[in-house]
Amino acid sequence: MAESSELVFFDLKLVHDHFNRALVQDDDVDLKAYLDAYNELYKFFQLMGSVFGFVSSDLKEKIEILFELINKDDQNYTTAKVMIEYEKENKILEKGDCSNGARTLLRLHRGLDFIREFLRQLGELSDSDKTSSCCQDAYNKTLAKHHPWVIRKAAIVAMYTMPTRELLFKKVCGTYVQRNIDVLPKMLEVTTDVFNRMHNLYEIHQLHTLP
Predict the structure, then answer these.
(1) Is residue 19 exposed (0-12), middle (13-18) or buried (19+ Cβ within 10 Å)?
(2) What are 82-138's pLDDT values in tens digits?
(3) In degrees, to the nearest 5, what angle opens at C-alpha 206 toward C-alphas 202 and 209?
(4) What is the arithmetic mean of pLDDT over 167-196?
(5) Between the CA of residue 178 and those of 87, 94, 173, what are the distances in Å?
(6) What is the mean pLDDT of residues 147-152?
(7) Which terminus of the chain has a lower count of CB atoms within 10 Å, N or C?
(8) Cα–Cα distance between 57 and 97 in angstroms, integer?
(9) What is the phi/psi pair of residue 99, to 5°?
(10) Radius of gyration of the chain (CA)
């Protein structure tokens, strides 16, 4: 994964393309393409700075764990479905450590729910609107359900410092502002397809409550 000094700007076109590539046959999700998209989303949180500190470090750790599992065993970690079935058959799901890919992916899945809801609401704002309210709303509807009170409180307080939509886009998108605004609806559409597929897989295997 690129270090912050190597980051340029956040590009929603890349997120769209990677997630689109993740939509493979049999309602499955390609893990490598999914993580490539998440790596780009991670840039967004890095570029926003400490306001998203409550989620960015956790995302980086989860992405790296899954990439490591793919590199060690590319046969059983090609797609979400293949991984879940492999880990169920081999009793890996019973382990609470980082060898449990399904548990790690579930954390990213929950994070994606927050990201897509925040970006959806962001797309409905005008340039002069503050982004703090929609970010807090998106967080309360999604990730907050899985965080203890201390983290929830700190996250909500941090979000009060968020800028207007215009300033936020300039900060994270640089010269890609208009391109990101233009591609946002298509990116949200494909992201929702990926999210729903993943959600259904965890539902089928009854894994939404993995510890």
Answers:
(1) buried
(2) 999 999 999 888 776 667 899 999 999 999 999 999 999 999 999 999 999 999 999
(3) 85
(4) 93
(5) 43, 46, 9
(6) 90
(7) C
(8) 18
(9) -75, -10
(10) 17
Q: How many CB atoms lie within 10 A of CB 97?
A: 9
**Unique residue bearing structure tokens 């400490």:** 50
pLDDT at position 106 is 95
The structure tokens listed for 193 are 């397809």
Residue from 74, 78, 8 nearest 40 by CA: 8
- How close are the terminal C-alpha atoms of the chain, in Å? 27
183 pLDDT exceeds 90?
yes
Provide the pLDDT for residue 160: 92
Q: Output the DSSP codes for 26-80.
A: TTEEBHHHHHHHHHHHHHHHHHHGGGGHHHHHHHHHHHHHHHHHHHH-TTTSSBH
Q: What is the dihedral of CA 174, 158, 144, 63, to 10 degrees?
A: 50
The two structure tokens encoding residue 132: 């703090």
Per the structure block, which two tokens stand in for 149? Answer: 């009170």
Q: Quick check: 51 pLDDT over 70?
A: yes
- Provide the 10 A C-beta neighbour count for residue 14: 18
Sign of CA dihedral 54, 179, 109, 95: negative
**3-state SS, residue 177:** helix
Task: Please indicate, yes or no, whether the overall pTM of this predicted structure exceeds 0.70.
Answer: yes
Q: What would the two tokens of residue 28 be? A: 């499955």
